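Q: I have 71 residues here and want to know how they pack in 3D. Can you give me a structure?
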Amino acid sequence: QKTNPLIIQGKSGGIPTPILIDTGSSLTLINSRLLSQLHPNLAKRLQPPPSNITLQLADSSPLHISHTLYL
């Protein structure tokens, strides 16, 4: 059975962006394009991802993580 994801229009740092509501997620992901548009001070706080973390999409393809940011 195919289900449609719950996507709402929202803002992140004042920038309009679609937001996927995933109640089972344990973290929040944003793409690098949106990150580059957010407040410049955030870039100073970026860290490399932990070596022990791997993510995959629902179709089992890998998801590359370039940075982490703890708020």
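Q: Anything worth noting?
A: DSSP finds two helices and four strands in the chain. The longest helix spans residues 32-37.
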